[in-house]
Amino acid sequence: MQDITVATCIKWAYGIQDSQISGPSLLRSEHYDILAKADEAVGGDQLKLMMRTLLAERFKISFHHENRELRAFALVVAKNGPKLHESTGDRKSSIQNTASGVVAKSTTMQEFANHISDPLRTPVVDKTGLNGKYDFTVDFTTYLPDNASTVRPDVASVMMAALQGELGLKLESTKTSVVVFVVDDVEKPTEN
Questions:
Q1: Cβ(104)–Cβ(136) below 8 Å
Q2: What is the dihedral of CA 143, 99, 2, 183, to 10 degrees?
Q3: Is 113 exposed, middle or buried (0-12, 13-18, 19+ CB in 10 A)?
Q4: Whose CB has fewer CB within 10 Å in the chain, the N or C terminal residue?
Q5: What are phi and psi of 117, to 5 degrees?
Q6: pLDDT digits (tens, 9 = 90+) for 12-68
Q7: Where residue 105 falls among pLDDT bands split at 50, 70, 90?
């Protein structure tokens, strides 16, 4: 991993959204390169456990969880139903940003909710009731306002329009109880 923050490591290792992480400024202010090698090939879940161990041992992270009432978006199915194609086969999940949108393969709605929470800068809760894994592409260019080349468009408005138009999903503003990962202590890592 290159040029990452401790918050990014926490987000990946615990499968949470950036807006669910609270703590000292060191979580986001310092950037690190992490080089690690396993003795044998390991899967994604095992890698996440290894990252948790690294965070505890090298960054001396201590934390607790709190339920907080936060403004959030609920990802729900739109009135005319979803426009998603269920994945075939047992592939690894991937979500990639492109120059004009997002390409997702074998992705759950919770994984997608976690992904779109970053640009929205607010928690996104999966309330779609869709339990499968899906392959889909979202192209945001059609939904950009005419003056997008001179004025920065509202991310939430563009995303709401694109999700409904491309995927048959909606984002509804809500207040909900969210589990927050509260970092009580974190230190700069020890040297190798």
A1: yes
A2: 0
A3: buried
A4: C
A5: -65, -30
A6: 999 888 889 999 999 999 999 888 777 888 777 888 899 999 999 999 999 999 999
A7: very high
Q: Where are the domains of the chain?
A: 6-67+179-185, 68-177
Can you tell me which residue has the tokens 């005319």?
A: 80
Query: What Å distances lie between residue 177 and 19, 24, 26, 73, 130, CA to CA?
Result: 13, 22, 26, 12, 21
Q: Can you give the C-alpha Rg of the chain in angstroms?
A: 18
Q: Are 187 and 57 in contact (CB under 8 A)?
A: no
Two tokens at 189? 């890592």
Task: Kindly indicate the confidence band of residue 77, based on its pLDDT and cuts at 50, 70 and 90.
Answer: very high
Tokens of 55: 């965070």
Residue 69 has pLDDT above 70, yes or no: yes
SS (H, E, C) 80-145: CCCCCEECCCCCCCEEEECCCEEEEEEECHHHHHHHHHHHHCCCEEECCCCCCCEEEEEECHHHCC
Cα 90 from chain centroid?
A: 22
Q: What is the pLDDT of residue 108?
A: 94
Of 98, 93, 129, nearest to 112 by C-alpha is: 93
